[in-house]
Amino acid sequence: MQFLERKAPEPAFEPKPAREESPARLIEEQKVTLLACILGAVASIGGFMFGYVSGQISGYFDMEDFGRRFGEADDTGKYVFSAVRQGTIVGLLPAGSLIGSLVAGRIADTLGRRKAISLSALFTCIGSTIEISAQESWVHYAIGRLVIGFGIGSLSVCVPMYQSESSPAIIRGVLVSCYQLFITLGIWTAEMVDYGTHNAYSNSAQWRIPSGISFLWALLLGVGILALPESPRFAYRIGREDEARHTIAKLAGVDINAPSVNFQVDEIRQKLDEEKAGAETRWYEIFTGPRMLYRTVIGIVLQVRASHLPGHHAANNAPQSGQQLTGANFFFYYGTTIFRATGISDSYVTQIILGSVNVGCTIGGLWIVKNCGRRKALMFGAAWMMVCFLVYSFVGHFALDQSNPQNSPAAGAVLITFSCLFIVAFATTWGPLVWTVVAELYPARYRAPAMAVATASNWFWNFMLSFFTRFITDAIDYLYGLVFAGCCAVLVLVVFFFVIESKDRTLEEIDTMYLMHVNPITSHKWQVLNREKAPSTTGSESQHAEGGRGDGNMA
Q1: Which secondary-structure segment (H or E) carries 79?
Q2: Contacts of 136 (CB under 8 A, 6+ apart)
Q3: DSSP string covering 157-194, please?
């Protein structure tokens, strides 16, 4: 294995204390500061917007004015939406998000993380204006969702990236996971607003008021993010070294010459020097760079799961965005049906009940993120969800009277119980943790494009399942859940064999672990033994595989 011979020039301050202590000891020096919490909360408004625009649409399909304007009258005079029209209206949001996520990396690397987030918020305002101005053309309304999706997709890349690059390692997992918490809060808020306007109005105010409120969230994010410091890692990369040092120190609540600050700055400098020693970065190097194909594929696989629970379905079972291959919204899809077995037939009440469970459990999930390892939580959560899918699918298909659910109250009670158990599993593990793990996977030079590709895969499946779910469930009903049970089983194996434990480590440490082929199964034991001899991001794959196997913790 070859090591870099050239060392970065020593700065005016003395970084030696950082070299004399282990990274774990240095992380303990960091504090939980008000500034770091504000940064995490303000940036997470991007997640709130994500959840809000996703959660509001299911309520719209039950609104009389929305159906009269954009639906089709059936033989009885009732306004309905065909599967294709519903799928298009709902699916254009993730379609726009797919495009937005692919270009977000370049925007973030060009303008900076903060300005990219502010610009993305502006796009959602443009989309909301198009939505609200729609009169009787469903295509007009759907185009508004497409434009909103562009902004939301860009935010889904830029916000976790900004949070992971800026947050102190001691609370990075919690702050990035706040993005998922705010998604669930956005969903719940949209459901409450839909419920209120549906009962209070009979005209277009039913759906135009919820859409108009979106401007408030965009304004809070677009302006608020500009009052926060730039990502220290981005600032350092463009030559603003003093700013990066001061930002790291302020966010961690320590002196600018503290050992932990020196350690992080040294690591950032070392990685940047390695990058400068190599050739100019090309986008395709997220597949050809050192250990990048491995990490890019992991990011894609982890993101192709239900990234959020964006509302659930109205009485007509409109397909919803956000249902990827763990099938989280499969439970919401049938939520109204199984609640009828207990006498609750109002789809808005069903949404609020399940949404409240989702929010409460996600708050509890932040404790798990802070105190439990990434690997154990993800494996346990996926196994738990698999069991829920198996019970739900078989009971729903064989025991529930789907034509009249009140005739099978026992089956309904089982399904409601396992709906809530699934939400607990998802909201405490995969919901918040995957955003964190994916944001930690990549080195700085590849982070923006790699996160863009991983998140784009999320939105691709989001669109596919949003559009085709109704067709599939019409054919095989509850047995559709068996597909997702199988996906959850595969995810347990993926995490066990391929994802390293990254809790309480700096982003640069995590990069080094992947370059050195640290065995994921024993990765929680790995320690930095010689930071000067860490493998280079610009070296070859075979060179990296040679180093550091002697401690028994390497793969």
Answers
A1: strand 79-80
A2: 69, 70
A3: HHHHHHHHHHS-TTTHHHHHHHHHHHHHHHHHHHHHHH
- With cut-offs at 50, 70 and 90, classify the pLDDT of residue 546: very low
Q: At what angle do helices 241-252 and 34-43 cross, to 10 degrees?
A: 100
Intra-chain end-to-end CA distance of the chain, in Å? 15
d(CA 28, CA 21): 11
Q: What's the gap between Cα 54 and its chain centre?
A: 14
Say yes or no to pLDDT of 69 above 90: yes
Sign for the pseudo-dihedral over CA of 227, 228, 234, 237: positive
**13-54 confidence digits (pLDDT tens):** 444 444 445 555 666 677 888 999 999 999 999 999 988 988
Report the SS3 class of residue 400.
coil
Task: Check whether 242 has a pLDDT greater than 70.
Answer: yes
Q: Which of 493, 473, 506, 414 is nearest to 169 (CA)?
A: 506
Q: What is the pLDDT of residues 399-435, one digit of tens each?
A: 877 777 777 778 878 888 888 888 888 888 888 888 7
CA 143, CA 121: separation in Å to the nearest integer?
17
Whether the per-residue pLDDT at 9 is higher than 50: the answer is: no
Closest to 105 in 3D by CA, of 451, 379, 496: 451
Q: Which pair of tokens denotes residue 361?
A: 């459990």
Mean pLDDT of the chain: 80
Tell whether the model's pLDDT for residue 278 goes beyond 70: no
Top pLDDT among 230 and 260 is at 230
Crossing angle for the helix pair 34-43 and 138-166, to the nearest 10 degrees? 160
Residue 279, helix vs strand vs coil: coil
Provide the token pair at 69.
Answer: 């304007």
* pLDDT for the residue 263: 85
Assigned token pair, 155:
């935010």
Whole-number Å distance between alpha carbons of 211 and 192: 13
Q: Helix, strand, coil: what percent of the chain each, to 5?
A: 75, 0, 25
Do 159 and 117 form a contact (C-beta atoms < 8 A)?
A: yes
Would you state the structure tokens that stand for residue 66, as one six-digit string? Answer: 């929305």
pLDDT of 553 above 70: no
Question: Which residues lie closer than 8 Å to 402 by C-beta, 6 or more apart?
Answer: 337, 396, 477
In 3D space, the residue among 289, 328, 304 whose CA is nearest the CA of residue 494 turns out to be: 304
DSSP string, 85-141: HHHHHHHHHHHHHHHHHHHHHHHHHHH-HHHHHHHHHHHHHHHHHHHHH--S-HHHH
- DSSP secondary structure code for residue 403 in this structure: S
The rounded distance, in Å, linking the Cα atoms of 348 and 313 is 9
Residue with tokens 């993101």: 303
What is the DSSP secondary-structure string of 27-71? HHT----HHHHHHHHHHTHHHHHHHHHHHHHHHHTT-HHHHHHHS
**Whole-model pTM?**
0.77
| φ and ψ at residue 334, rounded to 5 degrees | -100, 10
Q: What is the pLDDT of residues 105-151, one digit of tens each?
A: 889 989 999 999 999 999 999 999 999 999 989 999 999 999 999 99
